[in-house]
Write a structure and sequence with these properties.
Length: 167
Amino acid sequence: MDYEAGLEMLKFFGADNRLVNHSVGVAGVAYELASKVNGHGVNPERVRVAGLLHDIGRTIGEPHEIYSGAILMNMDKKLAGIVRQHGFLYEKMKLAGIVVPDLLPVQMENKIVALADGYFGQRRMSLKERFDDIRERYQNDGMFVKAVDMAQGRFEQMEREIVRGKG
């Protein structure tokens, strides 16, 4: 699937302007990060499309990571795997007493999309700004804020690995 087809998919699924802006921004950051990573089997264009479609499941509901993966599963299994591992679902499940390691990004492309999402809300920002923004927007959902708190260190580790080249 290419980028233009991804934009059409977002429209087909009824993504609003806010979601499209976020998705286009994440795609751009993901492409930028992927273009700077040498090796690791990273395909910058695939990462760009995954960044574009990572939140398509939000047009259906939560858990959007699972819905995003399900939407893409019959079209592109690799994209489906990338988008399924981008958010805070691992931490949300862990708070419920269920540990699902398969929800954590392990492959470099998956980590890049997750980190790009961590850098872009409605604009480019630092991880700290983005996590603070998420906490503020979801302040009435205590369990989600706990999941975000739990995930922040994981995102900082991905940043060290991808941006600074230190694993």
